[in-house]
Amino acid sequence: MCQHKTCATIRANSPAAAGVGAALLLDYQDRKANQSYWVMAVGLEVARKYQGEYNLCAGSLDASDKGCFLAALRRELAEEFKIHIAFQDGSFDRMFKGTNGQLRWFLHYNTPIFVGALSSGFSRQPEVINNFIQKNSKKIMIHGLIIYWSERIQLVSSSGPT
């Protein structure tokens, strides 16, 4: 087991926790419209149970994580979203810690969801999301989180226990 205080808190509050997720947000600045939009990164599941659905970056703890939720979070981000962050260079802290120095996270049922802020430079319009928006209704349900959009994807409400 790791010695992270956050991991100990998760184990104490949710002994059944066996996975981890990441809600990645970007404050997109639309210079032409002089507005900003909160954009949430989701990925298209390509296999298994949720194939064809859009989802947060999430997965189960692996033996290589040695019971550490933060290690699992780093691994899942690298595997699923190709985002590589490290503890040593501060990139993990920049993405997941608030201005108070605390990690941003909540429990959704038994799964800790870490809330990350993407730095500018991440695209808000991956091709697959644009195609999905054009072809489908204006709502996506992601494990209790509801994402609505008008012209752009923006998080406006959430449901389920936190």
Explain this structure to me?
By secondary structure, the chain is an alpha+beta fold. It has a single domain, classed as Nucleoside Triphosphate Pyrophosphohydrolase (Alpha-Beta Complex), CATH 3.90.79. The chain contains four helices and ten strands. The chain has helices at residues 5-13, 69-81, 91-96, 127-135; strands at 19-30, 35-41, 43-44, 54-55, 57-60, 105-108, 111-117, 139-142, 145-149, 153-158. The strands form three sheets. Strands 1, 2, 5, 6 and 7 form a five-stranded mixed beta sheet that branches. A three-stranded antiparallel beta sheet has the order 8-9-10, with no helix packed on it. A hairpin with a 2-residue loop joins strand 6 and strand 7 (111-117). The protein is globular, with a radius of gyration of 16 Å. The model is unreliable at 124-162 (pLDDT under 50).
Uncertain regions: pLDDT < 50 for 5+ in a row? 124-162
Please tell me what the overall shape is. globular
By CATH, the architecture is named: Alpha-Beta Complex
CATH superfamily: Nucleoside Triphosphate Pyrophosphohydrolase
- Number of extended strands: 10
Strand content: 25-35%
